[in-house]
Amino acid sequence: MTKYILGTDIGTTGAKTTVFTVDGAVISNDYAEYNCDYPHPLWVEQDAEMLLAAAVKTIKAAVTKAQIPADSIASIGFSTQRSCALFMDEGDKPLKMISWQDSRTDAILDEIRTMTTEEKFYEVSGLPLGNTWILPKIMWMREHDPSCFAKTARIVQLHDYILKSFGADEYITPETDAGMTGFFDVDCYVWDDDYLKLFDLDRSLLPGVARVSSPIGKISDKMAEETGLPRGLSLYVGIGDVSSASIGAGIIRTGDFLVSMGTGGMLVACTDQPMRDPNAAFLITDHAIHGMWQWEGLQKGSAGCYKWYRDVIATDERDKAASEGKDVYDILTERTRNLPPGANGLLVMPYFASAGTPRWDPYARGCILGLTFAHDKYEIARAFMEGVALEYRDMFESIQRSGISPASVRISGGPAKSDVWNQIQADIYDLPVETLAYPDASVLGAAITAAVGAGIYNSLAEAVDTLVKPGRHFDPDPKNVGKYDEVYAAYVSAYEGLSQGTFKRLGAL
What we know:
By secondary structure, the protein is α+β, with helices and mostly antiparallel strands. It has 2 domains: 4-237, Nucleotidyltransferase, domain 5 (2-Layer Sandwich); 303-406 and 475-508, ATPase, nucleotide binding domain (Nucleotidyltransferase, domain 5). Strands 3-2-1-4-14 form a 5-stranded mixed β-sheet. It has a 5-stranded mixed β-sheet with strand order 17-18-16-15-21, sandwiched between helices. A 3-stranded antiparallel β-sheet has the order 6-5-7. Strand 2 and strand 3 form a beta hairpin. Helix 11 (303-312) packs antiparallel against helix 14 (377-401).
């Protein structure tokens, strides 16, 4: 009997499931979009039960579309957004889920700085001190919502909640994700006891930690019935979305680089040593392959900024696409194809959720600069594409100053479907870039992790070498590279000017 492997990615704004053959051919997929909640400016929360329901829906739909018998499904792997703090009650019901995008904890960060130094925090956790991580979220809840915190029996991440809901024996965090807390030793793969004591964190509130692909239980009968998955299907420790994208893009050797664009984005470099960035700009996290590490540059807006453009500015194109059964992004790609580099003098600062790597500025805000009466919405669209790529250029500049240079660059995520955006990236980075035959690398990475757990492949490396295939290649266009050097200089100048008080004053309003 032909066997199939499934991957489910539960991201910030949508869940997707794909059914693959064991040699990587796509049989079917399904996607469900959902929203974030914004109770106050800079606050970002989500309904964890809604995300679970969306995942279940996509699995059921993908299995139904595939028209395969349930007993032909050999495995299902899960990838989820990281650094979301889920506060669970004694009955395993989510009380609150604070998103990784949430930036409410500025005052808490000042409190942390009185307890430890930023240098020590980076040395222990591998993370630049910032409000993305779980530690400041826990401290905020303890101080500002004590009644909810008093009901909290477990503090877990989305991965742990999803797997437990599917039937896992206990809450388990993958090694790749535990580092998102701020109190996990990524060099030694253990909770840091000194930091637990320093921040008065009860170890009993935390999940266990295990390697990716470790067995974690079997699917419950209820979930098997709701999803169409076979009863008794084994479950395996999954993976955070960025780590999953690394696996799904084949970033498994020193010098491999990935630009991953989702609601948020990452620049990922693979290394075989747990080094620290001398500029403390990059996250150091555990790679899915035990004994390897990742340098990660975080972009907090990324393609989410372009989605904002779609929903707020390109409403006519969005409605037209819906009525004609087209993809609105395809329409925008064609409208921007022949526009010049620099979008005729427009510059977008993509700090819609503040600035991540390498600037780590919680006060930074999104901007559209250079507008005149001569500009139209498509030049603005191109400026959004370029602005997202310019923030990645910032990361490339920073990581190369730290002595790490790319041997290859691959691109994953929805924007990789746009040849215009891919060429913009090659020109702005002045590096050859390569897409993937299957662009949703997080979904493929999730499928790979469970396939390895199920013994279909002997190792993650073997599975990657078998299943990950390149797509299209884009070389930088020399006539555009110099122009984008000028645009990048304007980008840096704009940030330096706005960060001297303007961003902070806007935030105060």
